[in-house]
């Protein structure tokens, strides 16, 4: 490890000292200790501050666990302002809007029989709650019980501390919409399954679970709906569960091993072996070490304590999705239950991610820092294509009909262009071409409106295909991603030329009158009337002011359409200068994304949703990088905190978090499927990215601070560097970046055409 590059920056010690802006942390030795899993949990349908829950998990784990404050089936399973816990749920939920599948819950109780969720619920306090990625503990006041959880990828251990009582019980709730449960008293075991889901599953979907207890049962019973029967051992129905109980001494701990499988009950028993004979504290220690190992690939120092907590809480969220949806059979082979055709098949499978969100920077982050994980994910995409006939655009666990675009093209192309290998790229390319030229069985798969797009270069406004401008702009970028991959794979020149030509289709929807993207009818005339502040309609969860910038691959082309750099910069400035006005008539009310823009006090900039998150970086393409530096730091400082209301909108499966992590390092992948990262402004005085190869990207930011957000000078490997971008290939060879920061813009640096990042229109 090249410690010589770290001036006063040790990964082994923590040094704290007081500055004008609070305690400064120069280095950390246990990054997971800075994580709050509660960030973003103070949310509700009308206002998202993350829409997260405290996921108790291993990185990318198949199963997560969470305390459950919401009612059965409520997507908001845990909210920070709740005061009662109803159970501890195994969850696979990627977001409250997508909801959950295969869920079931445990709940310890004392006193009289309580199995209904309202009856068994207990008051709790955050003062008696410990929430970390690898360990959770809470005191259930009504039952005088402390519950602790520590997970592995497919299993978990519970440690439940009871008071002295003759009526200690544990409720196992298999939830409604079809469930089964069986008590095996001679083995201190319970087995069962849950079929509860929110869509995207085959008809034979089940999540099989097994629980093993270290204390014999003294009484048992089954509930079916609202009816309870003592001494019954087995039941199935719409909503079944079990209650087992025993006498306990003061402080007696009951240990529960639990695992599940999407394949079979026997496989669930195999998955239980992840726990082995390790006791609770050993697994907890192992979990902490695994999180620290994963998170230590990115180390930062020289920020205040709140910045460190915010950074590592965001890094935690980047390592949760897409989740593993594969298991290991008795011979140790990787197998999976297919959420597409219901068969058990060999190979990897991952799920619970929406590419409309995560193509932007979550997957590029994996490609840079955790490429070995994305190799497996690419293998999973191959299997998804073979099993469904399509690449998923939003998988949870199978195909879901939500959002727009064909952004699997970006996810596949960026990985290969960034050097990932070891999987069948030809099959993936075949899948991209298939998806790019055909409408799928649902509008979120393949390309809705593709016949129009191929014929006239856009999806028309007047053909009853909603969000048509958003679709057209994303299709054009996705065609660019295919163009880039086709070149890399030496495809026929005619094929390469086709996708290059189609990637310029964004020009068809640019309205010179307003300088914005606008819906266009089949006859080539722009839609009337046109309100650029109208959310939805021709756009997806945004308006024209947000989506006009969705020309990731050809910013120079957009600059040219707008009349040059000065007009382009003025247009971008306007986003922040406009009041947060909006037209919500398409939705018939204010959706939460609108409200989050309105209250942010950043004009019409809507960082709480994905379409505009890259926009700030575009100042680099027009010769005014200092404006990017100003607004990036503003966004990091104002829109992110390590608090329960710490996000400015939906966190969205690591995307909004990855924006912060990249931006805090000082660069960002504006155009995935290119080999460039666009410069921003580093947040910390020191940072290091340790790559799987052992090479390191080391960043120093001299004079960095609250006011000193402007890059005065940058040296790369000791050589002065004026460009507004960094090359991926240069970074992965190992690089030292020395920033000199100041409190006033350097208006000479990064202003020449040769300093600007890649644009298709500038391609030679």
TrEMBL record:
<dbReference type="Pfam" id="PF17678">
    <property type="entry name" value="Glyco_hydro_92N"/>
</dbReference>
<dbReference type="GO" id="GO:0016787">
    <property type="term" value="F:hydrolase activity"/>
</dbReference>
<dbReference type="Pfam" id="PF07971">
    <property type="entry name" value="Glyco_hydro_92"/>
</dbReference>
<dbReference type="InterPro" id="IPR008928">
    <property type="entry name" value="6-hairpin_glycosidase_sf"/>
</dbReference>
<comment type="subunit">
    <text>Monomer.</text>
</comment>
<dbReference type="InterPro" id="IPR012939">
    <property type="entry name" value="Glyco_hydro_92"/>
</dbReference>
<feature type="domain" description="Glycosyl hydrolase family 92">
    <location>
        <begin position="267"/>
        <end position="743"/>
    </location>
</feature>
<feature type="region of interest" description="Disordered">
    <location>
        <begin position="743"/>
        <end position="764"/>
    </location>
</feature>
<dbReference type="InterPro" id="IPR014718">
    <property type="entry name" value="GH-type_carb-bd"/>
</dbReference>
<dbReference type="InterPro" id="IPR005887">
    <property type="entry name" value="GH92_a_mannosidase_put"/>
</dbReference>
<dbReference type="InterPro" id="IPR050883">
    <property type="entry name" value="PNGase"/>
</dbReference>
<keyword id="KW-0378">Hydrolase</keyword>
<feature type="domain" description="Glycosyl hydrolase family 92 N-terminal">
    <location>
        <begin position="34"/>
        <end position="261"/>
    </location>
</feature>
<keyword id="KW-0106">Calcium</keyword>
<feature type="compositionally biased region" description="Polar residues">
    <location>
        <begin position="743"/>
        <end position="754"/>
    </location>
</feature>
<keyword id="KW-0732">Signal</keyword>
<protein>
    <submittedName>
        <fullName>GH92 family glycosyl hydrolase</fullName>
    </submittedName>
</protein>
<dbReference type="InterPro" id="IPR041371">
    <property type="entry name" value="GH92_N"/>
</dbReference>
<feature type="signal peptide">
    <location>
        <begin position="1"/>
        <end position="22"/>
    </location>
</feature>
């Amino acid at each position: 490890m090249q410690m010589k590059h770290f001036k006063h920056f040790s990964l082994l010690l923590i040094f704290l000292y007081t500055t004008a802006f609070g305690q400064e942390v120069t280095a950390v030795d246990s990054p997971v200790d800075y994580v709050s899993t509660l960030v973003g949990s103070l949310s509700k349908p009308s206002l998202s501050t993350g829409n997260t829950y405290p996921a108790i998990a291993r990185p990318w784990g198949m199963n997560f666990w969470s305390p459950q404050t919401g009612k059965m089936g409520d997507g908001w399973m845990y909210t920070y302002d709740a005061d009662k816990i109803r159970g501890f749920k195994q969850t696979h939920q990627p977001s409250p809007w997508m909801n959950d599948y295969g869920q079931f819950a445990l709940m310890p109780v004392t006193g009289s029989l309580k199995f209904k969720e309202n009856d068994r619920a207990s008051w709790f306090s955050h003062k008696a709650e410990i929430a970390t990625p690898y360990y959770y503990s809470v005191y259930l006041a009504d039952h005088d019980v402390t519950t602790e959880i520590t997970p592995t990828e497919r299993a978990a251990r519970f440690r439940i501390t009871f008071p002295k009582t003759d009526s200690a019980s544990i409720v196992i709730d298999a939830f409604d919409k079809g469930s089964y449960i069986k008590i095996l008293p001679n083995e201190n075991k319970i087995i069962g399954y849950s079929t509860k889901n929110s869509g995207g599953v085959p008809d034979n979907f089940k999540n099989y679970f097994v629980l093993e207890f270290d204390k014999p049962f003294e009484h048992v019973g089954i509930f079916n709906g609202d009816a309870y029967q003592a001494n019954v051992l087995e039941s199935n129905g719409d909503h079944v569960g079990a209650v087992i109980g025993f006498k306990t001494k003061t402080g007696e701990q009951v240990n529960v091993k639990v695992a599940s499988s999407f394949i079979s009950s026997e496989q669930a028993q195999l998955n239980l072996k992840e726990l082995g004979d390790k006791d609770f504290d050993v697994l907890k220690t192992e979990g902490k070490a695994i999180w620290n190992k994963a998170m230590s690939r990115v180390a930062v120092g020289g920020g205040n304590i709140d910045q460190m907590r915010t950074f590592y809480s965001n890094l935690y969220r980047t390592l949760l999705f897409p989740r593993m949806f594969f298991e290991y059979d008795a011979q140790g082979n990787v197998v999976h239950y297919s959420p597409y055709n219901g068969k058990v098949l060999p190979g990897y499978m991952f799920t619970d991610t929406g590419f409309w969100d995560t193509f932007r920077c979550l997957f590029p982050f994996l490609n840079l820092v955790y490429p070995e994980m994305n190799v497996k994910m690419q293998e999973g995409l191959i299997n998804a294509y073979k099993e469904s006939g399509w690449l998923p655009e939003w998988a949870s666990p199978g195909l879901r009909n939500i959002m727009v675009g064909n952004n699997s093209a970006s996810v596949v192309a960026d990985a290969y262009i960034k050097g990932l290998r070891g999987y069948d790229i030809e099959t993936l390319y075949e899948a991209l071409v298939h998806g790019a030229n055909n409408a799928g069985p649902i509008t979120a798969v393949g390309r809705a409106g593709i016949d129009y797009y191929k014929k006239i270069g856009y999806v028309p406004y007047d053909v009853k295909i909603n969000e048509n401008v958003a679709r057209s702009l994303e299709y054009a970028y996705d065609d660019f991603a295919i163009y880039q991959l086709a070149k890399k794979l030496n495809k026929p020149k005619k094929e390469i030329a086709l996708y290059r030509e189609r990637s310029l289709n964004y020009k068809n929807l640019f309205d010179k009158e307003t300088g914005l993207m606008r819906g266009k009818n089949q006859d080539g005339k722009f839609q009337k009337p046109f309100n650029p502040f109208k959310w939805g309609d021709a756009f997806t969860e945004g308006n024209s002011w947000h989506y006009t910038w969705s020309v990731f691959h050809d910013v120079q082309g957009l600059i040219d359409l707008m009349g040059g750099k000065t007009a382009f910069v003025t247009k971008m400035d306007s986003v922040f200068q406009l009041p947060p006005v909006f037209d919500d008539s398409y939705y018939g009310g204010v959706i939460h994304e609108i409200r989050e823009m309105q209250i942010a006090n950043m004009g019409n900039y809507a960082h709480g949703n994905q379409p505009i998150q890259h926009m700030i970086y575009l100042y680099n393409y027009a010769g005014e990088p200092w404006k990017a530096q100003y607004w990036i730091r503003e966004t990091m400082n104002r829109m992110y905190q390590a608090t329960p209301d710490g996000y400015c909108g939906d966190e969205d499966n690591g995307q909004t978090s990855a924006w912060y992590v990249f931006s805090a390092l000082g660069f960002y992948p504006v155009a995935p499927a290119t080999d460039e990262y666009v410069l921003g402004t580093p947040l910390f005085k020191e940072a290091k990215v340790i790559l799987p190869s052992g090479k390191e990207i080391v960043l120093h930011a001299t004079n960095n601070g609250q006011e000193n957000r402007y890059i005065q000078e940058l040296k790369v490997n000791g050589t002065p560097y004026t460009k507004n971008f960094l090359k991926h290939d240069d970074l992965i060879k190992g690089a030292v970046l020395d920033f000199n920061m100041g409190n006033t813009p350097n208006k000479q640096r990064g202003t020449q055409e040769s300093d600007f990042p890649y644009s298709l229109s500038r391609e030679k």
